[in-house]
Amino acid sequence: MNVLITGGMGYIGSHTCVEMLEAGLTPIIIDNLCNARSEVLNRIEHLTQQRPVFLEGDVRDEAFLDSVFAQYDIDSVIHFAGLKAVGESVRKPLEYYDNNVNGSLVLTRCMRKAGVTSLVFSSSATVYGDPQSVPITEQDPTGATTNPYGTSKYMVERCLMDLVHAEPEWSITLLRYFNPVGAHPSGLMGEDPQGTPNNLMPFIAQVAVGRREKLSIFGDDYQTKDGTGVRDYIHVLDLADGHIAALQQVGAKPGLHIFNLGTGQGSSVLDMVNAFSQASGKSIAYELCPRRPGDIAKCWASTDKAQRELGWKAKRSVTEMTADTWRWQSNNPQGY
Ligand code: NAD
Ligand code: WQD
C-alpha cells in the first residue's frame, strides 16, 4: 500500500514511516522542511534498510501536489504537515490558519482530482478545550479552543466532516493525539525542537543533558494529586502504530471515523520529572512558577473506542517513554 505522508520528516511522521516500513507499507514523504532536518531520511534508512521516497515541497502548493499524485499511485494519505506551537500561533494566527487550514484544503482538493479518497488527519486533544470531565470520550464537546493552533485543528475537523457528509465515498479518520513523547528505542530518532522547547518532555530532556539550567513548572495549585498539571503522555511509537491500525481497520471504509490516541493514564508534571530523573540518573532542577495562560488542570483519554474498533492499545509505559527520550537526547545532545 502506497501512503502519502505529509510532514513525514517531522517528529511523529518520521516514527510513523519507520513503523510503516516495518509493517510492509510504502510511505512517500512530502515535507517543506520548515521544522525538520533532512538527516531524518538517513536515520529511517539506517533503521529499516529502506530509503523512502522524499519530495521536498509545500502542501499549499497545488501544482506540486498534483505532480506527486500524477507520479505515484497513492492509496491513502496521512496528513501530519502543519505548524504546532501554541504560543507562536497566538502571535502569528494568519500563518497558522494558512498552513494548517489552507494546507488541508489544498491537499483534499488535489486528492479529489486524483481520485484518492482515504485520509487520516493529525488532530489533537486540544479540540476538546478544557474538558468537563475525564476521561475524555470522542463524543465529548469540541470547539471551545483557546488559541489559533487549537482552532485551526478544530476548523480542519469541521471541514473534513462537511466533506465526508457531502461526498460519502471519502474515508476520513480524525486521530486526536494526547501528549506524544518518547523516541525510537535505538536512540537514532526523536524529537528535535528548534529553539526553546514549548513542551514538557523535550524541556526536561534538555535540562538533564545540560543544555538548560532548570525547568519552570507552570502551576502547583491545580486540583490534582500534587497540584501540577496532569496529562496523558503517549509513546510516539504507540502513536505511530495507531496510524497503521487506522489505515488497516478503517482506511478503506467510507465515512467519518474519530479516535482518541492516548493511554488512558494521567501523569503529573512532577511524575514526569521523577520518571525522567530515574531514567537518566540525573537530577532535574526545577522551580515552581505561576500557571501558564490557557493551560488546563487535567486531561486524559478514554481509549475504549480505539481498542474496540481499531484493535489498538498503547503498550509502552512512562518508564519506556523517559528511557527512550533520554537515550535519544544523550546520544544526540544537539539534535540531528
Ligand atoms: P513536527 O513539526 O515535528 O512535524 C510536522 C512536519 O510538517 C515538519 O517536518 C514540517 O517541516 C512539516 N510541515 C509544516 N508545514 C508544512 C507545509 N506547509 N508543507 C509541507 N510540510 C510542512 O510536528 P509533529 O509533532 O510531528 O506533529 C505532526 C502533526 O501532529 C501536526 O499536524 C501536529 O499539529 C499534530 N499534533 C502534534 C502533537 C504534538 O504534541 N507533537 C499533538 C497533537 C497533534
Ligand atoms: C504539559 C504539562 C504544562 C512545559 C500541548 C498543546 C496540545 C498538544 C500537545 C499539539 C502542562 C507543564 C510544560 C514547561 C511545565 N499539541 N509544563 N513546564 O500543554 O498539555 O499540550 O502539546 O496538538 O495542543 O497544547 O503539553 O508539554 O506543553 O505541557 O510545567 O516548561 O507540562 O503546564 O501541565 P500541553 P505541554
Features:
single chain; 336 residues; alpha/beta; Rossmann fold; seven-stranded parallel beta sheet; two-stranded parallel ribbon; 11 helices; 13 strands; binds nicotinamide-adenine-dinucleotide; binds UDP-4-deoxy-4-formamido-beta-L-arabinopyranose; NAD(P)-bd_dom_sf; UDP_G4E; carbohydrate metabolism; NAD
What does this structure look like?
The protein is an alpha/beta fold. The protein is built from 11 helices and 13 strands. The strands form 4 sheets. It has a 7-stranded parallel beta sheet with strand order 3-2-1-4-5-6-11, sandwiched between helices. Strands 7-10 form a two-stranded parallel ribbon. The chain has a two-stranded parallel ribbon with strand order 8-13. Helix 1 (11-22) packs across helix 8, helix 3 packs parallel to helix 5 and helix 9 crosses helix 11 (318-331). The longest helix has 22 residues, at 93-114. The protein starts with a strand and ends in a 5-residue tail after the last helix. 49% of the residues are buried. The site of nicotinamide-adenine-dinucleotide (NAD) has 27 residues, from helix 1, helix 5 and strand 5. It catalyses: UDP-alpha-D-glucose = UDP-alpha-D-galactose. Its cofactor is NAD(+). Keywords: Carbohydrate metabolism, Isomerase, NAD. Belongs to the NAD(P)-dependent epimerase/dehydratase family.
